[in-house]
Amino acid sequence: MVRGTFPFLIASALVLFGCMASGRAANTGNGKAGGSQGTHENFEQWYTGSLVSPSGALTRKGVFAWEPYFFYSQPVGYLDHAGRSAPLGNRAHSVANLTLYKYSITDSISLQVTPTISYGWRRGHGTTSGLKMGDLPVDLMWRYLNADPEHFIPALSLFAGVAFPTGDYSRLGRDEDGVGTGTYTFRVALTEQSTYTLPGHHALRLRMWGTFRRALTQARIADTSSYGTSAGFRGLAHPGMYGESGFSLEYGISQKWVMAMDLARDWANGAVVRGYTAQGRYQHTVGEASGDWVIAPAIEYNWSPRFGIIVGVTAMFAGHDTGRVISPQAAFNSTF
Questions:
Q1: What would the mean pLDDT of 179-195 be, rounded to a whole number?
Q2: Among 65, 132, 197, 305, whose Cα sits 20 to 30 Å from the Cα of 283?
Q3: Is-contact 175 227, C-beta < 8 A?
Q4: According to the UniProt entry, where is the signal peptide (predicted)?
Q5: How many angstroms separate the Cα of 17 from the Cα of each of 21, 197, 316?
Q6: How many CB atoms within 10 Å of residue 240?
Q7: How far is CA 205 from CA 5, 26, 55, 247, 250, in A?
Q8: What is the pTM of this model?
Q9: 16-53 pLDDT, tens per residue?
Q10: CA–CA distance from 255 to each of 85, 121, 204, 307 (Å)?
Q11: Of 58, 64, 66, nearest to 35 (Cα)?
């Protein structure tokens, strides 16, 4: 389950060591969903945050952050069990909006909600029956270690929460309508954030993270479902555990312009489905485990410490038992 975690932690530690050796530490801010970045030379770097990396808790009580993401998913192929590219039939396209709402309850504890709305279609087949809302994650974030730039100590945060089963998953009128799991899912994450001043008066921000998800309940499914069952089926489904680890770098070209890059590894165990088909036959299946590597270059523009935009693309470049997807994205970041 942790096969993708250790390589990232090692690589990220090497990046962090290199930053320490070549630059001087700067004060650490929030990043995605609010937060600029100050230094000891009265220079303030403004950030929006990279496309993939999660941000920690906000730094001041009473701050509200709002960040809508818009993205289009373009399937380009399939990676088989050995990681070889294979043709992908019946390609599922989608456009989606994920909006991050975050409120700081105290100076170190924040509450975050991230609803997602999507619309999907398969060329030559069908579309979703309308805009579909996925499962709803609600997370509590605690920054348990504040940054100490003078001693190269980063800000460390812990996330814990639950995704509520608000997305359609059973008795679907169309296959494309399956956007939910039907289960309450436990979510936990650890994040690190630190910023350094490089020669030439440029800031470099590093983030590292690891996330883990596990279903707390089973889903009762009937007929067509998001687990691939068909009309007449009755049974239970349990999603497999899954998670992600990775690191991001954000390099300040100027106070307003920032180049960003994420590198992440995803893994997922297959779902377990058991029940009876329309013909009364017992069925017990376990889906294939999957994994992928994703890179996400982007450019940020921030016209103030409170407002900014980011535009980029996430691209899957390696993996197994998974579809290859390229996803152009854009987001607007604001804090109040």
A1: 96
A2: 132
A3: no
A4: 1-25
A5: 6, 14, 27
A6: 19
A7: 21, 9, 12, 10, 5
A8: 0.84
A9: 433 333 333 443 344 455 444 444 445 689 999 999 99
A10: 41, 41, 12, 13
A11: 58
Total count of domains within the chain: 1
* Inter-residue contact 315 to 290 (CB < 8 Å): no
The mean pLDDT value of the chain amounts to 87
**What pLDDT shows up at residue 184?**
98
Structure tokens at 240: 């497999």
- Provide φ and ψ at 4, rounded to 5°: -95, -5
Q: What is the DSSP string of 301-322?
A: EESSSSEEEEEEEEEEEEEESE
**SS3 at position 6:** helix
Kindly indicate the confidence band of residue 4, based on its pLDDT and cuts at 50, 70 and 90: very low
Residue 127: domain span = 5-335
Buried b / exposed e across 176-201, counting CB within 10 Å, b at 16+?
bbbbbbbbebebebbbbbbbbbeeee
Q: Which residues contact 143 (CB under 8 A, 6 or more apart)?
A: 56, 57, 59, 108, 109, 155, 156, 157
Rounded Cα distance between 87 and 243, Å, is 26
Nearest Cα to Cα of residue 33 among 69, 86, 83, 87: 69
Give the pLDDT confidence of 48-85 residue by residue, as tens digits.
Answer: 999 999 988 998 999 999 999 999 999 888 888 888 88
Which CATH number do you get for residue 280?
Answer: 2.40.160.40
Give 108-130 as a DSSP string: SEEEEE--EEEEEEETTS-B-SS
- Asked whether the beta carbons of 29 and 37 are under 8 A apart, the reply is yes
SS3 39: coil
- The rounded distance, in Å, linking the Cα atoms of 148 and 208 is 17
